[in-house]
Hints:
Structural class: alpha/beta
Mean pLDDT: 95
Distance between the termini: 65 Å
Bound molecules: flavin-adenine dinucleotide
CATH class of the largest domain: Mainly Alpha
Amino acid sequence: MTALVWFRNDLRSLDHPALSAAAAKGHCRAVYFLCPQQLDEHVIAPIRRHYLRRALNALAGQLADLGIPFDIIDAGHFRALPAALVDYCQQHNISEVFAHEELLVDERRRDRACQQALTVPLTLLDDRLLHPQRVLKDDGGPYKVFTPYARRGRALLQSAPPNCLRRPKAIDSQLPPAECPVFGEEKDSGDWPAEEEAVLNQLRDFCRERAEAYREQRDFPSVPGTSKLSAALALGLLSPRQCLARLHAEAGNDIWDPKSNPGTWLNELLWREFYHQIAFHFPRVVMGRAFQADTEAIAWGNDAKLFAAWQQGRTGYPIVDAGMRQLAETGWMHNRLRMITASFLCKHLHIDWRWGERHFLEQLIDADFASNNGGWQWAASTGTDAAPYFRIFNPTTQSQRFDAQGQFIRHYVPELAQQSDKAIHQPGEVGNYPAPIVDHRASRETTLALFQQIKD
Length: 456
Ligand SMILES: Cc1cc2nc3c(=O)[nH]c(=O)nc-3n(C[C@H](O)[C@H](O)[C@H](O)COP(=O)(O)OP(=O)(O)OC[C@H]3O[C@@H](n4cnc5c(N)ncnc54)[C@H](O)[C@@H]3O)c2cc1C
C-alpha cells in the first residue's frame, strides 16, 4: 500500500508536513493536479504561470532525487478534481492521502468533495500560516483588528516557536523527474528564483543583510529594502515557519519587538496571517463582497477611460504611473506603491476596488487572494482595519516623501527623466506625458461625499 502526498500551494520538499507524513508511511508517491481552466477563470498572470511551471519542475527534480514518484496531471478544471483524485488513488493503490489545509472557500469545498468521493482517508494538515487560522479571541470569535491579533500571534510564537521539518530521507533509487507542460500564455519569470535552494538563499541573504534596516528602508521603492519573497510564499516554495526560523537565527530576540527592524518584518508576515484568517472566517470577502457591509452602497463612478489610464500608467501623477508601469513590466509592485495606486484608483478616480483587485490578480507574480483582497479593501476603506475613509493619500506628497529625488519615477517614467528633483513630482503636461487626469482636491471632496452618503 502506498501513501500519497497531494501538492497544491506548497511546492517544496523541506518543512513540508504532508510530505513528511506520507514518507513516514514507508512507501509514498506524489501528485500535482494542474487546472488550466481554473487558472483562466481566476485570471492568473502569464508571469505567474511561468513561475508555477518552473517551480513544479524544480519540485519534480527534488522528488526524483528522493526517489518519490511524482505525477503532474492535467485535470482541466477544479470541479473535476475529486474524480481525478479518486481515479489516481485507484490506479496506484493508494491507502491514504495527505495534503495541507487550504483556507479559501472554493478550496475548502473542493477538499470536502474529495473527502466524500474517496474511499481512503484524506488528512489535511496545517501549513499555510505560522499559527493555525483557528486562533481565536478569548470570547471565541475571530480577530477583526490587526493589532490585537498580531500581539496574540507574537506571544504564541514566542512561547512555542513552530518547528521546521527536515526533508524526508531518500526512499528508493533516483527516478527521472516529471516535467510540467506549458499550460497557457507565459511571460518570463526568470528574475524570480524557483529552485528551493535559491529561495532559501534569498531568505538567508535578506535576514542576514537587510532585515536589520528593514523598518527604515521598506517604504522607499528605489531602495531594495524588502525581501521580495512574496511570490515564493504565495506558491509555498517557502513556508512562513522557515521565514521565522531564519529571521530568529540571524536577528535573535529582537524579532519579538514589533518596533525593531527585524520585528517589523515579522509584523508583515503577521499581516499575511491576518488577511488569511479573515478570508477563512469571513469568506464573503473573497467572493466580491466588502468586509464592511454598509460600504456596498457606495456609488462608485467606474469610468472606463479613467480606469484604462490608471492601468497604462498615464494618470499624470508620476508616482502612480511609475507604480503601474512597474507592475506591467515586472509583474510585481513595491508595497508603498500598491497602497498609493490602490488608494488613487478608489479615492481619486472613484472606481470600485474590485476592478483594481482583479487587475492586480491579472498582473502579479505574487497574486494571493487573501492578501490582495485585504490590501484593496484597506485602501478603499471597506475592509477590516481599513484606512478611515477621510484619510486620503495625496499622491504628490507621498511622492515627495518616498521618492524624494525621483529616482524611481525616472526609471519607470523615462519621459520625466530630465525633470528636476522638485518638478518631477508634479510636472504637468510634458511632451508625451499627460497632465493630471483628475484634480486632487476635487477628487477628495467627491470621495468624502460618496462616503458621507452611506454614513448618513
Ligand atoms: C492593494 C494591495 C494588494 C496587495 N496584493 C498582494 C498580493 O496579491 N500578494 C501578496 O503577497 N501581497 C500583497 N500585498 C501586500 C504587499 O504589498 C506584498 O506582500 C509585498 O509588497 C511583497 O513584497 P516583499 O515580499 O518584498 O515584502 P516584505 O516587505 O519583505 O514582507 C515579507 C512578506 O510579508 C508578507 N506581507 C508584507 N506586507 C504585507 C501586507 N500588507 N499584507 C499581507 N502580507 C504582507 C508578504 O508575504 C511578504 O512577502 C498587497 C498590498 C496592497 C496594498
